[in-house]
Amino acid sequence: MSSVLLAELGRRLNARARRRERSGLAPAPAERAPPGTTPARRDPIRGVPAPPSRPPAAAILAHAGPAGPRPRRPPLPALWLFTDPARLPDPLAAAARLPRGAGIVLRRYPPAEAARLAVVLAALARRRGLTLMISTEARLALRLGAGLHLPEAGLRQPPLPFLLARRAIPAPRRPPLTAASHGRTSLARAAALGADFAFLSPVFATASHPGAPWLGPVRFGLMLRGRRRPARIVALGGIDAATARRLAGRPLAGLAAIGALVDPAD
For the chain, what percentages of helix, strand and coil (3-state, to nearest 5) are there? Predict the structure, then answer.
């Protein structure tokens, strides 16, 4: 399922890159198939490269981001794995399968277990070029050089020591700050804190919160138009290949998932 979700994400990001090329903002990346794959076939209806026969993740990521001037700081991931003790007791295997440039949000584990997993995931992130976000535990995030993820409730009393330390770090090395949001109020709080982006959820029905109300594509799209919000929004909640297609065309910064990026054997 992860390859299918990556394919959907890659097609969307590739389309965005082509729009940027037509507007003169950046050249499009070269359409060369990665080693070990067959050349991409063009879809005669959509006019974009069809997924190669193998391996899909490598071919997608070869075209995932537009070329252009080097940004002031490294770009943040467009694909995120969220941990969940109930649905993903051991996140290490799922994290190890993520493509380079993806992100992990470590959350909901007891403090001692979170600290153990954070050390291992931080080492994995350095080796694999991943971005690690640690929920709530600001001191742990600073110690490991990871980013900090704030739950929605944490936006009311943000950790000032982390924010001050983060401000003192030059932009290229500054740890990212993200926030969870379920509505306009928390989006405004995240923007006021200077969050790099917010995870807005649940966009669709999710197994993490059975029976909970969800936004749906229309309400989600309306929230993206609000003025008081972080510049970048990532969709979370019930995200898989089918639901990702329903968000096509919206100004998203990325997609986040649990089940769609997890192997049943994990």
Answer: 40, 15, 50
DSSP state of 214: -
Q: What are phi and psi of 57, to 5 degrees?
A: -60, -45
Element (H, E) at 180: strand 177-181
Q: 124: which strand partners?
A: none
Q: So where are the chain's domains?
A: 75-261
DSSP H or E segment with residue 255: strand 254-257
What CATH number was assigned to the domain covering residues 75-261? 3.20.20.70
How buried is residue 97: exposed, middle or buried, by Cβ count under 10 Å (0-12/13-18/19+)?
middle
* pLDDT for 56 beyond 50: no
Cβ atoms 101, 129 nearer than 8 A:
yes
Shortest CA distance to 76 belongs to which of 95, 56, 115, 104?
104
- Between the two ends of the chain, the Cα-to-Cα distance in Å is 13
Question: Quick check: helix, strand or coil at residue 197?
Answer: strand
> Over the stretch 97-121, which tens digit does the pLDDT of each residue have?
999 999 999 998 999 999 999 999 9
Lowest-confidence pick of 24-33, 95-104, 247-256: 24-33
